[in-house]
Amino acid sequence: MNANHFNILSNKIVFLMLTILPVGGGFVYAFLYSIGTIGILNNGFTLSHWVNVLTDTSFWFSLGYSFYIAIVSVSISILLALTIVLFWKKSLVSNNSIVSYLLYIPLCFPAIVVALFSFQVWSKSGLISRIVSHLGILTEITSFPDLTNDTYGFSILYSCILMITPFFAILFSNLYKQEQIDHLKNIAMSLGATKTQALFKIVLPVILKKAKITISLFIVFVMSSYEIPLLLGRQNPQMISVLAIQKLQRFNLNDIPQAYAIACLYMIFIGLILYFLFFSKSSTQLSVSPLKRNFDD
Amino acid sequence: MIRKALIPVFMLMVTFPIALLLLLSFGKSWVYPNIFPDQFTLQHWNDIYQINSELLMVTLKSIGISLGVSSVVTLLSFFSSKHISYSVYKSRWLFLAYIPYVFSPVILAATLQFYFTFVDVSGTFFGVILAQLFITYPFGVLIFSNFWNPRIKAIAELSNTLGGNSWITFYKVVLPLSKGVLLLCFFQVFLISWFEYGLTALIGVGKIKTLTLSVFQYIQEANIFLAALASCLLIIPPMILLYLNKRFIFTNQQTI
């Protein structure tokens, strides 16, 4: 083996040790724990924990609730980001304008800070409640609606939108430039298309088609959110990461195998989505964003 | 005209969270229904500069962890990514890198907690850095996978053909070309590590306290003023980095 082969091999071993080994090792441990093979109170092989999780409505509610939060927040963010990009496209394309600088500011906020900010704005004793009270609309603090730790996840949605919109706006403005959409639009209009037709037949389809993989990844990232629902969510329904971790950290040791079964299901679910995104015929180069970590820390 | 007029409104919306958190960080009491805190104090900010200040120590520790993680990841992933990007099975290797990238770090940490306890690195500085490597290293590989393209390979091969050995090719040709992407990776990984909460909380088991953990602790203690102060400390470094990132790296990348 020459030095070059050794170099390639050692780098690939480092890669496998830092990527697949932790995920694989974690999955094996979680799976063995969930089927009762290892663990403090486990007495041998059993599928009862998996049956409990799969027949428990709280797991399915949690999955559905996570999906609802992800779809709603990503959809609203796309609409807002498209509005920002189309409204300020000239400023954003120039890349040195004040708008393009402003879009980067929210990227500096970790999820926990956004969650704290949302709580200080929307809680019963928050800023909005105080302003409404000063305006004389509110007679007492309890009359203010529940906008944090509420069933519909209002403040979770607000926080997610606050974090995703700037990222999508930056992504869309880059795509607008890369795909020379202005040029395409001008050609369409010189061939007789109206402004509305150019928008709905050229601009939006090109941007959304190019961004569809990133949008799909963001749905997965938001579904895995942890800190935001931990601070702003409620006990029931919970988002999937919060449900798994709370089951793991409860005093009831019998909940631990169920937590690991949920973790396994989550891992399988993410693996399948990623496989589909990566190897589907229409898949293009996936993009990476540090913002993702803001969600599911 | 309307576009220009709306820019200040947009600016206000974007900077409002910073303004509110800054205001609260100077607050002492905020009785309902007052819109602004009733009393202001410089004490919280002054306390940071005390030698034994807990927040100062936590900030320094967070900086240490983030600098350590970003340095190691930038170095390791730069070379790993080269061999992966030039591999015949590039897409399969990149798929493997995407798995930990897409995963929820907190769930990954939950499944790894046993191993960290077993090798006795749970609750240690090293343990937290190692755990953060698992989520940031794949990210680094993915960033560099765009850099190691056929053009860079062709330039390196040209240098070899013209008589440069592998060290000269790397030092005089590849490294100058990669300065921008190296800095980009370093900054981005620093941010990921700086923002990290769930994984650090589980692997650090409360012994390794970072700024994100402090924010959460202050919120649980219902001390919104210190939570706001810790939040301000969390926002400042990313703002400086993103400014440098946007001002220098993006501009450089456009000229490469």
TrEMBL record, chain B:
The chain crosses the membrane at residues 7-27, 63-81, 93-116, 122-144, 181-204, 224-244. InterPro entries: MetI-like (IPR000515), MetI-like_sf (IPR035906). The keyword RNA-binding does not apply. One of its GO terms (cellular component) is plasma membrane. Keywords: Cell inner membrane, Cell membrane, Membrane, Transmembrane, Transmembrane helix, Transport. It comes from the Bacteria. Gene3D superfamilies: MetI-like. This is ABC transmembrane type-1 domain-containing protein. It comes from Aquimarina aggregata.
